[in-house]
Every structure is written in C-alpha cells, then in structure tokens.
Amino acid sequence: MISKLSFLLLLLPTLLLAASPFPRGSKIKAATADFQAARMRSAQGAGSGALLSSSKRYEGSSDLVHLRYHMGPVLSSPINLYLIWYGPWPAAHRATLRDFLLSLSDPSPPPPSAAQWWSTVALYSDQTGANVSRRVSVAAEAHLRGLPRGASLTRLGVQLVIADALASGSLPVDHGRGAYLVLTSPGVAVQDFCRAACGFHYFTFPSLVGHTLPYAWVGHSGVQCPDVCAYPFAVPTYMTGVGAMRPPNGDVGVDGMVSVLAHELAELSTNPLVNAWYAGEDPTAPTEIADLCEGVYGTGGGGGYTGQVSKDELGRSYNLNGRNGRKFLVQWVWSPIVKACRGPNAMD
Ligand SMILES: *[C@@H]1O[C@H](CO)[C@@H](O)[C@H](O)[C@H]1NC(C)=O
C-alpha cells in the first residue's frame, strides 16, 4: 500500500544465487522482514538447486505469515468502481482494463476465470461476519485528458484529482459502495512511481476531498519503467538470458497494469481503511493479502519464478479467462482458508 522496504534489495542476494528474475507486481516492497529473511535463508542455504522447493515452501507456508484481522470493515456491499482516466487514454487500452474489472464478477468465462480469482478475495470477512462482496461493477468513469492537475502528481495530488472529479459532478460521492481508481496515462509521473511503487491504495481525507473514500492509483509503466512495474512482460536488462513473457492483450504497460490493479483492488477491498486485514505490526507499513504473493502467478511460483501459467496460440502468457474472450495474467493472493497464495489455475 505504501512504499516500504525495497523488495529488490531484500531479494537481490537470492536472485544472484538463483540467476532468475525477481517477482514484482504492484509494489517494490517486501513482505514482513522476518518472512523475507526466512525466504532468503531457505533459498541461500539450500543452494541454487533448491529454488523450486523453497518456492513451494513459500507458496504453502503458514508458519511464517501472520496475517491478522484488526477489527475494521471490508468492502462487503456490492462494489461500485469509479474510474478516473488521468491523461490521454486510447479507447482500446481503456477497454482492456475495464473488461478486466467487469470480469471479476462475470460467471460466464471458462475456468480459470477472473471471477474465480476474485472468490479468494471474497473469503475475507469482518467482525460482523460480512464478506468482501463478489459483485464488482464499473459505476461511472471520468476521462481527464487534459491533465488538469499537471503531468506530475504527488501522492496527495492523486486525492486532489478525485476531489476535482467529485466537485465537478463528473463522479458521485458514493459512501456505501464506492471505490475510486485513478489510472494515469504513460506520460504522467507520480511520486514514487517506478521507484517505490507501481500502485497504491488508501482512503481520501476530508480535508482534501470532503469525504473518507477508499481509492487506489495505478500507473501505466510502459514508457517509464516496464522492467520495474510490468514484470514479467519486461525484465531488467541485467538479467541476461531471461525472456520476457508476451502480454495477453498486446500491450506491456496495460497488461502489466492489470495485475497491479488486481493487486490494489484485492487489498483495498480487504483493508479499505487500513484497519482490517494485514500482516506485520506496523500499520504504516502493512503487508496485505496481495503483497504476500507478489510475483506468484501459478503453482510453484515464488523466488523469481512466476509459476505454471498457460500460453495461447500466439505464445502469449495468461492465467485467467475474462469476458469478451480476453485473457489476463494476474498474480495470486493469499487465501485465509489454505493459508497460502492461491489462484484458480492452481494445479493441486
Ligand atoms: C465468507 O468468509 C468465510 C470465512 O473466510 C468463508 O468460509 C465463506 O466461504 C465466505 N463466503 C463466501 C460467499 O465466499
């Protein structure tokens, strides 16, 4: 959610040993330090040949992860998403991202589907016994092509973009069900983008926006830092010999955003006010349900290996089916039932 320890720095010794790319989804950050340290120890102690077994242990570990409920609410009412396209966005790219969001509660695509992926998120409940809703819809959209707040946003500036959309009446204030998503176009710089974050979620402040509303920001990294934020569709140049995967919808930046958006939405729904589901003792640096599974897209994933995913007839990698015949590659999330990272393309 908020940048913290660098995932890259913590993982680098493991990577150098294992000579494989590091997993990064939405944020370059670590899980709890002891969790990461244990992960590094297991990989280092066993040598490079143990990558898979250590990953399996990571994937299946319950003893190292202390995900806890902190008494706050989850998004249990049907979720109304409000999209703010900030900067110029081609219609085709908006359609890919919108189709992903609409797939989250669409039962028709064949398994493994995006709706099945969301069903793991819907396993989280709050102290009233209400689960995260399985119903996710796009309620309204605003397209701010002209960059009214400029081409470089601070973190608080993202809230001002939402404030503008509400004040102008482009989007309604939806207290019961609303979640606001700010999606910045390729040329927009955002504070910490590409360095400490590829996306984040939080809630708006009454002093800036007039209301407390859950929101997330995700940036298109295609131009600025695909090797940081659109992994595994781009890999860092120093990782010679590691091939990038082909993006299922043909755009590295947009397909990379899909997984980051999924990551943020899963966390926003299970921890909207940052007082519900997270691991770690520090609420300013919570480790949430998607943070625990960064870089894991299939069985065996972790420690720099995506895990087993599928390829379509054009060689494009995916692990979820969505609406309109689309395919997506989305990281797994932590399941409170099996106490491991889980996705509908699991082999076991
Ligand atoms: C609600 O959450 C509980 C606890 O994780 C789970 O057992 C139950 O299956 C969930 N219900 C739905 C409809 O997902």
UniProtKB/TrEMBL annotation:
This is (wild Malaysian banana) hypothetical protein. Coiled coil: none annotated. The keyword Nucleus does not apply. GO terms for cellular component: apoplast. It is found in: Secreted, Extracellular space, Apoplast. The lineage of its organism: Eukaryota, Viridiplantae, Streptophyta, Embryophyta, Tracheophyta. Belongs to the EXORDIUM family. InterPro entries: EXORDIUM-like (IPR006766). Residues 1-18 form the signal peptide. Keywords: Apoplast, Secreted, Signal.
